[in-house]
Prior knowledge:
Strand order of the largest sheet: 9-10-11-2-12
Order of helices and strands: EEHEEEEHHEEHEEEHEEHHH
Number of strands: 13
Shape: globular
Amino acid sequence: MQRREFLTASAAALPLLAIGTARAGENRVLRFMFDLDFPVLDPHWFPGGPVRINAFAVFDTLYGMNTAADVSPQMAAGAVVEDDGRRWTLTLRDGLKFHDGEAVLARDCAASIRRWAAMGRNSLGQALWSATDEIVVPDDRTLVFRLKRPFPQLPQALGTTTGPLPMVMPERLVQPPYQPFTPVKELIGSGPYRFKADERVPGERTVYERFTAYRPREGGVADYMSGPKIARFDRVEWAVITDPATASAALQTGEQDWWGWAEMDLVPLLRRRQGIRLASLDPLGCLAAMRLNHLHPPFDNPAIRRALLGAVNQSDFVAAIAVDDPT
Length: 327
């Protein structure tokens, strides 16, 4: 098991969003480094952490989740629930635009949610899809979920930060037939940053520029993936640096501004360096679990499972991850 100072993949998207504490020079460029690249562009297709980091910069969701795991409207202005919870009417905020200049319409949202849910790669999306009779679009700013049965977790599903994400894309990119093994090739969202395809070098570098037509949600405060997302940098450069020692050196010399993961072995050194701040940005922490196959021997026997539980020392796992650092 690798030893890291944990920052979950969703929280790692924060450098690309509303960060007021990172260094912003006169040219307002943030140089961000991570040890992985994203293998695909499509946020509906793959659940990996780097895909989600990229997705939360480029796209937006109908609902957003805060650090308490509560959700609130994000692209949506609000919702009306009727018919004993079997009809949800969502209204979009004014002024939403895609990076190609086209307005975000309700049919874009409906097509995106249909594809994300129907692909079956997110458990909440699967549950929502099984409870949905149809999604209809009465006008450009309204989409209606007509449900077979009440599904009170609808906002949680549309604002989830785990698994493949319910990001809104232009309708033309997500039209049926849905092909679960064919991701979209074009990255056009309505989020605070525009993906610079012409500067993308797979495995090495990804570049974003601030989307000047993005309108943050009014009111409230930015909290995780909810509230007003303020793009504080004109440009973000994501460098893929796989070697921890190289990444640490780049941070210490000022070649890079932000390191998404700090290897625990290097934390004491980084703490001693003036001008470097270490922080855990994710108050929810990281949960690791070992799931046993109950269908096959020996773990089909509850007594064997109980014996294994007694043999596992949780502190050994924590020590493997965090060395001897109690923070």
